[in-house]
Amino acid sequence: VLLNIDEVIAIIRAAEDPKAALIARFNLSERQAEDILEIRLRQLARLEAIKIEQELAGLRDEQKKLEDILSSPATLRRLLVKEIEADAKTFEDPRRTLIQAEKRAVAEVKVVDEPVTV
Description:
mainly alpha
């Protein structure tokens, strides 16, 4: 139920009989539903604030990692190589075109052999 705190608050605010609605939605016992209804919304909001703080800490960690990657060209290059190798393994398939030995192009210039006076 704590993972669905927003939904619980919405049910408490909107339902005419929130106890029955909580029991039906979350498959709770009557005692559990009563305890949830006795908790003040302030406490529920505090739990939500804790959840938001945890999410913010996770996002800050991710931001730090991304800034480290962008600040170091070597780290960026390593990450790109890893991602390309992972994609190559995921999407690899046999070659569809035949590789043949190249033929050399020869340019011939025909010069007419005429007597020339200088």
